[in-house]
Every structure is written in C-alpha cells, then in structure tokens.
Amino acid sequence: MNNLKTAQERVFYQVYLPSFCDGNTDGLGDFQGLISKLDYLAELGIGGIWVTPFYPSPLVDNGYDISDHCAVDPRFGTLALFDELIAACHQRDILLVIDVVINHVSDQHPWFQAALSQPGSPFRDFFFFREQTNNWTSFFGGSAWTQEPGGKASYYHKFSPQQVCLNWSQPAVEREIKKIFDFWIARGVDGFRFDVINFLTTDGIGEDHPPAETGAEPPHEKDINQPGVLDVVKRLCRHIRAQGEFLLIGEVGSEVLPVMAPYQGAELLDVVFNFNLGSQKHFDITAIFAEMQAMEATLPGLPTLFFSSHDMSRMISRFGESSRDVPRAVAVFALQMTARGLPFIFQGEEIGMTDFVPQNLQQMRDIQGITQYHTAISQGMDEEQALTYALPFCRDASRLPVPWTPAINSEGQINVAAESKCSHSIFGAYKQLIALRNTHPALQRGRYEYLTLFKQCLIFRRFLKGECLEVMINFGATVVNVGYGDGNPVLFGADEPLLEKNQILIKKVNHENTQK
C-alpha cells in the first residue's frame, strides 16, 4: 500500500483501457493487452497506472455508466485476470489506481431497475423521482430530467438519461458505496480516482437555476459543489484510509482553483486534477506560468501535472504541434517532469499521438458529441453545421487506439520506419526525462527556491536536502542569454549559456543554504 508520500516519487500513466492494447484480437483494449505492455511501461520509467472503468456497462458513456461496480466487463477480461494484473504491476513496483464512479449508475444497474419495477422498493430512495421538476440541465445538453417508463414521475441525471444520479442524502447509498471500495481494496488496488466527485447530490434537489441569457450555457449554481459534499468525501476517505495507505485522487469539475482547493487536504483527497493548467486550449507560456504560481499560492498540497487525458484534445494537437514537430512537445513534457507536482502521462503521448477528428456523425462514439450534434440539428442546423458545432464537445479526439503495430513492437521498441505514426525523438526524450525525475529526489519532492518567467523562458530552482537543480526551458522564438558558464554538471540539454527556441537546460547547481 502506498500513499502520497511515496506516490509523488513516481510518474503516473493513464490507461484508457478500450483503446490501449488489444490482447485477444477482438478490436478492443483489455486487461490481457495491458498486462502484455507492463514491461514496456516499466522500461519507460512509469511507477503508477491509472486505469479507466472496466466494469460491466452498456457503454453509453464509454464505461462511465456502470451497471455493476464489483465485476469486470467480459469485454475487458475477468476478475481472475484483474487479479493477475494487480500481481504483475506489483512485481514491477507499479501502483494501480482505478476509477470509481459514485455520482451515478447506469439505468441498467440493479438498483435503478428495482426502483423502476418495484414502487415500494427501498432502492426508490437511492434516486431522485419528481412529478414536479425544476429547470436544472444536463451537462451533456438538454433537461436533467427524464420521465420514467410507464410512470408519471421523472428521474434526475446530470449527464445522459442512462446515467442516473444517486441520492447521497440517503445513508443507505453511502453504505453501499463503501462496500464497493472494500471489494477492490481486498483485491489489492493502490488507490482510487474519484470521478466528478464535486457533482455528488448531497443536499437534494433545490430551486430553479437563475435563467440563462439567450444563447448562453445554462448556469450550474445549485447542482454541483453542494454544501454537504465535503463531509461525504471526508467520510469516504476516512473509511478507505482505515484499511491502509492509498492514493486518493479527485476529479473536481472546475477550472477555478478556489473551487478545487477545498477537496484536497489531510482528511480529504491527496490530490485533485488541476484543469486550470491541464486543459488550456492553446499554448501560452505566460498563462501556464500564471497557473503554476496560482497553484503554489492556493492549493493546500501537491498540484497535479497533466496536459492530456481521455476527456480532452491531446496536448500535441491542442498546442498547435504535430508528431513531427518535436521541440515544443518535448519542452512541455520537460516542464511536466521537473515542475513541482504529481505527473500524469496520457497513453500515446510518449510517441507523439495526435487527435482523431470525426468526419461525420457515424464516426462519433462519444455521447456528449452525439448529443450536441442532435441538439444542433433540432435547432435547424444542417449536417455540416451540426458537426462543426458538436466537435468541440466530442471527446473522441484522444481515444484512438495506440498504434502498437508497426509503430511499437512487443518489446516496446520504436520502429523508426513508422515515423508517420509516432516520433522516435519524442519517445527518446520522454524516456530520458522520466529517468531524470526518477533519479533526482529534488525533482520528486523538492520545493521551489524560485519560479520565474524571463521573456518566454521558464526558469526555476528546486531543492531537497543536499540536492539543488536549476531548470531553464525556453518556449519563445527569441534566443535567451541565461548566463550560465559556471561548469556545473548538466543533466539534460546542452551546456550552453544561450537557450534558443524550445531548448532545455537542466543542471545541478551549488546551493550553500539548502534547507535540511
């Protein structure tokens, strides 16, 4: 078992299971495929894996609509194969963190099916049924209320109608969810990633939202971050930690640091995903620097460092690069590996994968994109206009399968002839930078001595006990004279006093007053 103290010494890798590696040639990623790539991940330097939902699901929302929280979807494997995955990870000193979705369940879940079919069932109270609804809206578009089949009441859902929200004001819901954590703890997992944890409906259904301006997104003032959420999170964290040391990660649906910060702390989650940094739509080192400063000033603990995930466009595409345009991608990753925080790599980043862009509705798989497409059609747009409207909402961009053949062979070696699909240069740089972080405690746990932006050159110094490292990354077009000809050993980059565009210099420096 490991908590944040040891977790922060590791680089984490997100596996979006359906598209990571197909181990049984049925066209879908699975546990067998993941197990087959553990040596590759260990060689890359990965110390922890976060794997997305693998539970039985109708796959309305790519597995985030769960019909059984204590089982494995046969498409991904079996419980026995999951146990094999846990053992194989631990043999390689890799932690395994799994997704838990406790805001909602699939409409095919036995709890909801009982609530529909048995009017007197205690499971009716697990959900919200109302004959008089309010104006709350779904985050996927449209009303958050859907009429139950054959009945007069409507049920509440923050996402698709097939993702039915749980009523966290009912103690029985919390008791059942704790049993889910117990089940996976008994199987040996090392931590949990709490999906949309600030969306839990703990204080019931309130009044209408204020009306939105014409054409504006409806506000979500009363349906998320309800006052009772933090108490629930504390109780869940306390329950889990009573059984050992686990890494507890929160997805807080916000880009506002003061909204995210309260979910992180000694009695709460170890870290939360900082979308203020990770989801920036365009590359802007000034904005990135500002967010790094804000995280240091606002968060009560360690920040997270990520620029891609299964829910967003890939960094290398979003920041205006391509798989052949190596320098900036490497520079951003150097920042990720050297800045203070817990780093997460999304599968395929290390080989320069770029976005998949659906060309029509038939190529879309993501429920959010599909819903927005149909909304646009209902508003009078033609198919081309509807596609253009829906694409910013569609999360298929980063979910294309990793091209293991021919780009990467079974030993995890890059096939240089497959340069059209991945970049040998990016892979090599990722491996070097991960190794650098893994071997220097100052990059794992060190504090900043200073953090500054000079022109477009990010410069900071991190120290821990007797080790002090200087990091300089120039993201600008102008050559920057950093003035270092001091002979201190260079760990990465060229020992030159001038940094041209996208050049990186990481070196040891003397630090007479290093804190003990």
TrEMBL record:
SUPFAM superfamilies hit by this protein: (Trans)glycosidases
UniProt-listed SMART domains: Aamy (SM00642)
InterPro entries: GH, GH13_cat_dom, O16G_dom_2
Glycosyl hydrolase family 13 catalytic domain ranges (all copies): 14-437
Superkingdom of source: Bacteria
Gene3D superfamilies linked: Glycosidases, Oligo-1,6-glucosidase, Domain 2
Matches recorded under PANTHER family: ALPHA-AMYLASE FAMILY MEMBER (PTHR10357), NEUTRAL AND BASIC AMINO ACID TRANSPORT PROTEIN RBAT (PTHR10357:SF179)
Similarity annotation: Belongs to the glycosyl hydrolase 13 family.
Name of the molecule in the record: Glucohydrolase
Organism: Rahnella variigena
